[in-house]
Design brief:
Length: about 280
Amino acid sequence: MRQISMHSTLHSRGTTNVGRQEVLDASLRLQVVRARYCDDLLARRPCEAEVFVVSDRFALRDWLEGHCGKAEELTAVTWTRHQSVETFAPSHRYNRELVEAGLRMTSFFDISEGSPTVTDFIVAADDMPYHVSFGPIQLKLLDGERVIVEGPVLNGKRSLMMIHGTECVNAAKQYLRAVRCGAVRAVELREHYTAGLTPRQHVIAALLGDGCTDEDISDRLTLSVRTVRYEVAKLMDALEVKTRFAAGVRYAEADTLERHHIAGTCNLIDRCDGTHAR
């Protein structure tokens, strides 16, 4: 089954504590600039920023897609924590549409504390410009001249800022350079999966456990129903079961045990090298 952890993988690929510190230093500089824009917006002082107050996730999606859809180049850092396949899949579909339309995209995902199934989803998307890295600040850089970052809390609601200022853009670029230095192409993480299931089959197995039909899985993963059925058949053979339901149950049981093993391994690594799990 799956044996993968962000901590051990990035250390094995050369992301040292020095590299993490460079990311943290760059993120601090960006946070200082961001804080000034937040102060200006709260004080209603003129600034080179557009603020969007998030009322619901659909309005947020429309606002982001409205800006990203007009860009020619997009570099993003995104956390997978608090995300599920159900919430991540629409973003993935839109990313695919943008790439197919000619957008130059580079996406860095911080998968620490995130769902293993979402990580499987990212690793399985071998035709997408997805990378895994350490990224304490989420942002989007559009065309190298506009930055979208978290804004101030306004009337008890979350907001995002679209910043055009040179200082913020330069700080964002410096942060992204540091993130990029420690990044691993998501598809390369496949070597950390033991024999048995592919990353795509891990995702499908988890969705079967959630009671999803072939059509549901097809829609979420942007695969044909025929491909899903082929993968389910291969999955059932690998798990040595005769029904879809049994595949979901067998996978859930095995994956729970494996996650405990991985967590214990990561804790040992953390204690040995003096770093803290994130």
